[in-house]
Design brief:
With 401 residues, the chain is an alpha+beta fold. It is globular, with a radius of gyration of 21 Å. The chain binds flavin-adenine dinucleotide. The site of flavin-adenine dinucleotide has 19 residues, from strand 1, strand 3 and helix 14.
């Protein structure tokens, strides 16, 4: 199907209001997406990357497109159908991705909305819209999949908690203003019962961030060391020792709602890149592409269902894991295929624009980066366990407490 007839087919099945909205977003994309962003972001240094990310976020925000999934009272309120249209158009016009704002608009926002006090929401949600950057400080050297084994402590001391410990793999840590921090407040309680959830100002004395160089040479994720860091008790989110329950909102956002955009990116941009660089006359290649197209259609359907079920309060506890597992493994298969058919250039032209996702068309780098999705927020094995236990009602893993 040509792009034009695909558009007509898409529009024929949409309401008038939605078609209008699609045209409005399309026009906005044409007028606002910097046409040269791929060039300027290729080889960009940290400062250029951060400045560009902030500027792009501000652009989206001023159009009302930065946080469509937030409640209307906080600047969002788009229907699921509108969000899908927005993400389809941003992907189709190859818009830059929001990399630095990601944890703020998804993880921090959902946590604040589910468990924050009104004061915490008033303090942080508008600040996120003004460009405040967040990092997730959950994992530790001995606590990844088994997150509840975390050893960072926070000891109550008057109106504050004194935190000590080490966090690992904190994405975007070196640019972050605030951190979603899990720390142990009751060392004697069963491991999931003694954890509390804090909002940590990254400028606090005793916070040290050390970037880690990853497989493609970036230092996006970091270690965070906490040495006698004083966190005001007002920055506790949820009740003391109830952090494990609160953390499920953060992890749910990572596994579920974020996928609506990622599915559209993969569907539009990823598939298009793949078709453009693939020898489609080859029947084996054509067959693989058709298979990907089918899987992407399935992914889109799954994502929509999860978001709608969440809105209607009918979500099942394993839904978000199903979507995350399916998306991340499909991304890996597609980027692997891109590297396979991309020939020598895919392996030698190793330049990926900052501010793009892992469907950038730099296939080898995309493939390496695609592991970013099968490991964090619960690796694929863990997602399968969640689906088995919480979705299918299978017996629990013997070690789970
Ligand atoms: C790119 C990237 C970005 C990240 N960003 C962040 C971030 O911003 N903030 C943050 O807090 N963390 C972040 N992480 C950390 C991430 O959440 C952990 O890496 C992840 O939870 C896995 O933990 P681990 O690395 O300790 O591996 P391990 O837990 O040691 O797991 C190693 C392997 O064993 C398997 N395994 C472990 N336990 C089981 C089990 N019970 N059953 C079956 N298989 C099992 C795992 O699936 C995995 O394959 C990031 C990681 C990556 C790779």
């Amino acid at each position: 199907m040509s792009a034009e007839s695909e558009d007509m087919h898409q529009e024929a099945s949409e309401s008038r209001a939605l078609v209008q909205f699609r045209h409005q977003v399309r026009q906005w994309c044409v007028e606002h997406i910097p046409p040269d962003w791929r060039e300027t972001q290729t080889g960009a240094d940290d400062e250029q990357f951060v400045a560009f990310q902030k500027q792009w976020f501000a652009e989206l925000h001023s159009a009302g497109y930065a946080v469509p999934h937030w409640p209307a009272e906080w600047g969002g309120g788009m229907s699921v159908a509108e969000q899908v249209v927005l993400y389809q158009e941003l992907a189709a016009h190859d818009a830059p991705r929001l990399v630095l704002a990601f944890v703020g608009i998804h993880h921090a926002a959902s946590t604040l909305l589910v468990a924050g006090t009104e004061e915490q929401r008033q303090r942080h949600l508008p600040a996120i819209l003004d460009g405040e950057i967040w990092v997730q400080g959950f994992s530790e050297p001995e606590a990844g999949s088994d997150l509840a084994s975390l050893r960072t402590t926070a000891r109550k001391d008057g109106d504050a908690y004194i935190a000590n410990g080490q966090k690992l793999w904190a994405s975007g840590g070196k640019h972050a203003d605030w951190c979603l921090l899990l720390a142990r407040t009751d060392p004697d309680a069963p491991k999931r019962k003694g954890i509390s959830y804090f909002l940590l100002d990254m400028t606090t004395s005793g916070v040290e961030v050390r970037p880690i160089r990853n497989a493609i040479g970036d230092s996006h994720f970091c270690e965070i060391f906490l040495n006698d860091v004083s966190i005001p008790a007002a920055n506790l989110i949820g009740a003391e020792n109830d952090g494990w329950r609160v953390a499920q909102a953060t992890l749910g956002a990572e596994r579920g709602m974020t996928m609506l955009e990622l599915a559209e990116r993969l569907g539009n941009a990823g598939f298009r890149w793949l078709v453009q660089s693939a020898p489609v006359d080859d029947p084996i290649v054509a067959d693989r592409l058709a298979q990907f197209e089918t899987e992407i259609t399935g992914l889109r359907g799954l994502c929509r269902k999860v978001v709608e079920d969440n809105e209607n309060g009918t979500a099942s506890p394993a839904d978000a894991s199903i979507v995350k597992l399916f998306y991340s493994e499909l991304l890996q298969r597609m980027t692997d295929f891109g590297a396979e058919i991309g020939g020598l250039p895919a392996h030698t032209e190793l330049a990926k624009p900052a501010s793009s996702g892992w469907e950038s068309g730099a296939w080898v780098l995309d493939f390496i980066g695609s592991w970013e999705w099968t490991i964090p927020g619960g690796a694929s094995e863990i997602q399968r366990t969640i689906i088995g236990e919480r979705g299918l009602g299978l017996p629990r893993e013997p070690s789970a407490v």
